[in-house]
Each structure stands twice: as structure tokens, then as C-alpha cells.
Write a structure and sequence with these properties.
It is a single chain. The relative contact order is 0.19. With about 400 residues, this protein is α/β, with parallel strands linked by helices. Strands 1, 2, 9, 10, 11, 12, 13, 19 and 20 form a nine-stranded mixed β-sheet that branches. An eight-stranded mixed β-sheet has the order 6-7-5-15-16-17-14-18, with helices on both faces. Strands 3-8-4 form a three-stranded antiparallel β-sheet. It is built from nine helices and 20 strands.
């Protein structure tokens, strides 16, 4: 039976980016996805590349997010070299819009907080902001400019990335749900998918919100890998608009929602945050919430056509931080739970995995994301030596 160097469970942006990096190292890689690779949370994402934390929980992600944003131009360039140009990456910056009677106070606090984190942000007069984006609402009371922010179209990115994987001879298996990992003693030896055994020297779990449903078939009662990857789905509804009246060039966002321009002129609006399990249904209330926020940011969008609606399932974790690092089973690595930051963190996550496999090391700024932070909560769990 063939033995792959690496088997990756999950064909979204995280798993595919890891496969891309490892294939560049001349490793024999197989990528397995329960559906069509790239059609899960990655396909549903807005594509904002912002290192600014969206909540206090996200503060530990900032150093990793800043590094990943810096990696993005090179990451895109290498994908294009290995596939074909798609040119749907833009570094045009973003406006944070503030409304209400405390708008200037809220803006100044955000500016001070983000500067403390080393994120470039400046308060800007509203007339100057409107010279750059004349769609900004007359009801806006203050604005801040984040000049370093970028955007990417996740769907075109995934298409180019998968083409690059095929070009680099990565074996891609679609419609191939993995049910368990295999191991001998404290060493992972592969996985089982659709009843078929797949042998691999290293297994990487990057299955998003499905990561915790996998089992360890070598443990009594098939213990779930949720001891390392307790991910759960959080639904996000989205829509896209086509307006003949405005053409947005930069991201606009407020505390209630955001608008992201696409290369062909559409505007993506989002999003909801709903803990409803694996339900990807669209709801009237969710769509209304998005439209209200979009029109509040840019009133002329009231006349725009709704051209598409969809929902995705973000992979969340108990502490809202990603899970990146080796398990205490030799040859098993976890890279999942990126929640709302999967597109942004893909380049740096892939780099971390590559360095772990190639150099047997993890960066100091990734220690907080170790899967062992969850495994250690199980008092019956015996800890084996960490191995790469």
C-alpha cells in the first residue's frame, strides 16, 4: 500500500494552503475533503484581510494576523506562478465608519487601541473620506482610515489554489469524508475515509467545523479528536449587491456590518453570527439585518439588486482562537478553528506547518494556539512526548 508523506483532512483555504506549501517542499501530499474542496467556509467568506481584532477575544491573534497579511502578496504571487493570474487581490485600505452621538469618542478609542497593537490607523475628516468613497452615508459622524488593509476574492483564490495543487501533483480527493485517524501506539499512521485506509507519515487535521467529529480508532470507544479540536459551527449569512449608482473601491464597515467590493463591481455585504449547529439555511431576519447595516453605511444601496445570498459555517472554538500545532500523538498536527480569520491566516498557518515538518520547530508566537490546551483539560488523558 502506498504511504503518503502527508495526508490533509479538509480542502478549504487552510488545508489547501498547507498542501501548497508542502508540495513546494517536494512532499507527496493527498488532500481529502468531505465535499468539493473550497466549497465550505472558504467559499462563503467575504475576503477582508484585516489584522484588527473584532473582539477582545481576538487580541492574541493580532501578531499572527499581521505576519500573515505581510505574507499575502508573495503568497498570491506564488499561487499565480503555479496556476494562472487571477488578479483579485487588492490593497486599497478600509474605512471604519462611526455613527451615533458618541461616534468621535468611539473612533478615537479605536485609533488609540489599534495603534497600541501596531496597526496603522488614522482618524480622517468625513469630507476627505467621502472624496475617496462618495457612497459613505450622510449620517456618518466619524471615520478612521486603515491604509494597510487588503481584500481577496476567496472563490477565485480557491480556484487558483486548487489549480496550483494539481499542477504540483497533489492528489485531491473530493466527496471523501474522513471518519477517523489510524495509529500504532503513540504514532499516527494514516486515516480512514469511506472505509478505505490511507497510509501517511503525517496527518494534518484541517477540517474546519467538522474537525471535532473525527475519531481516534485506536482508542476504546473511538474517542473523538475533539479533545484536541473542539470546533463547532457558527453560521454566517451573506449577500451580494449590484448597484448602478455606486462603485465601491474600498471596504466600508461599522460595528453593525461591512461592505466589500469585488473586482467585477459587485459588493459583498455581511454578516450574521448565529449558533445554530450545522444549519446553513437563510433567514428573513438575517438578510434584513445585513441589508439594514449595508444601507446605513451606503444609503444608495437601497436601489441595488440582490444578486446572490448564501450562508457558511465558520469553525469556532471554545476560546475563539485557532488551533495550530502538533498533538501529543507523533505525526498528528491540528490546523483548524480559525473562525472568522481563515482567509487572512492561511499563509501564516501554512508556513507554521511547513516549518514544523521541515525543521521540527514551532514559532513562539504560536504556542498559545496549541491543541494541547484542550487535551490538558482531560485528567484521564496520558501525555505522550511531542514529536514532529
Amino acid at each position: 500500500m502506498k504511504v503518503f508523506d502527508v495526508a490533509i483532512i479538509g480542502g478549504g483555504i487552510i488545508g489547501s494552503s498547507i498542501a501548497f506549501e508542502l508540495a513546494a517542499e517536494k512532499l507527496d501530499v493527498v488532500l481529502l475533503d468531505r465535499e468539493e474542496p473550497g466549497r465550505g467556509a472558504s467559499w462563503a467568506a467575504a475576503g477582508m484581510l484585516s489584522p484588527a481584532p473584532d473582539s477582545p477575544d481576538a487580541l492574541p491573534i493580532v501578531p499572527l494576523a499581521k505576519e500573515s497579511l505581510q505574507l499575502y502578496p508573495q503568497f498570491i504571487g506564488r499561487i499565480e506562478e503555479a496556476s494562472e493570474p487571477f488578479m483579485h487581490f487588492a490593497s486599497e485600505g478600509a474605512f471604519q465608519i462611526f455613527l451615533g452621538s458618541h461616534a468621535e469618542i468611539d473612533r478615537d478609542k479605536m485609533v488609540a487601541d489599534l495603534k497600541t497593537l501596531g496597526i496603522e490607523i488614522e482618524p480622517v475628516p468625513l469630507d476627505a473620506a467621502r472624496q475617496m468613497e462618495n457612497a459613505i452615508s450622510p449620517s456618518a459622524q466619524a471615520a478612521a482610515w486603515l491604509s494597510r488593509e487588503s481584500t481577496v476574492d476567496p472563490r477565485s483564490l480557491m480556484a487558483a489554489l486548487l489549480a496550483a495543487l494539481r499542477h504540483r501533483d497533489v492528489e485531491i480527493r473530493a466527496g471523501c469524508p474522513v471518519t477517523s485517524i489510524s495509529r500504532q501506539g503513540a504514532t499516527c499512521t494514516g486515516l480512514t475515509a469511506g472505509g478505505e485506509k490511507v497510509k501517511a507519515k503525517i496527518v494534518i487535521v484541517a477540517a474546519g467545523c467538522h474537525s471535532g467529529t473525527l475519531v481516534d480508532e485506536n482508542v476504546v470507544a473511538n474517542e473523538r479528536l475533539s479533545r484536541y479540536a473542539p470546533t463547532h459551527p457558527v453560521r454566517g449569512q451573506m449577500l451580494s449587491l449590484d448597484s448602478g449608482e455606486i462603485r465601491l473601491g474600498r471596504v466600508l464597515r461599522s460595528e453593525r456590518g461591512y461592505l466589500v467590493p469585488r473586482h467585477e463591481g459587485r459588493i459583498v455585504a455581511g454578516s450574521t453570527i448565529e449558533d445554530v449547529g450545522f444549519d446553513k439555511s437563510l433567514t428573513a431576519g438575517g438578510i434584513r439585518k445585513i441589508l439594514d447595516a449595508a444601507i446605513e453605511l451606503a444609503p444608495e444601496l437601497a436601489n441595488a439588486r440582490i444578486v446572490e445570498t448564501w450562508a457558511g459555517l465558520r469553525p469556532a472554538t471554545p476560546d475563539n482562537l485557532p488551533i495550530i500545532g502538533p498533538a501529543d500523538i507523533k505525526g498528528l498536527f491540528i490546523a483548524t478553528g480559525h473562525y472568522r480569520n481563515g482567509i487572512l491566516l492561511a499563509p501564516v498557518t501554512a508556513k507554521i506547518v511547513r516549518d514544523w515538518i521541515r525543521d521540527n520547530r514551532m514559532p513562539a508566537n504560536a504556542e498559545i494556539f496549541s491543541p494541547l490546551r484542550f487535551a490538558s483539560h482531560n485528567p484521564q488523558r496520558k501525555t505522550a512526548k511531542n514529536c514532529g
